[in-house]
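Trying the structure run again after the queue cleared.
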Amino acid sequence: MKHKIKLEITVNNDSMQCIAEYHPRGYMRAKNDHLDISPECKILNTLYMLAKKRGVSLKCLNRNNCVSIIVPEINYEAILCVQDYRVKCRDKVYLMITRRGNLYIPVKLIKA
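Done. Tokens:
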């Protein structure tokens, strides 16, 4: 079952709280655990633009219960944290835009 969660996002020392939906693997045929983040979360506009056409594969690091998505070509780093959860990702993540227009980020949430 999907869960609405509050996400703390930091980009270049700017911080913003956004609402996202967490979809566990298997829910609505999801192949991976992932977050769907609405385009209303303006702080992630750069990631939306990169993922818009055909999606994009980016470097991801696990840091202090958060994940950091990095675009080295433009010196961009987005840090995503969820209160009361540990967020985990693989070395590379494939970001894309869903049919509903949300940003799809494959991460796993683990209750802290």
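The chain has one domain: 3-111. Worth checking whether this holds up in the mutant runs.
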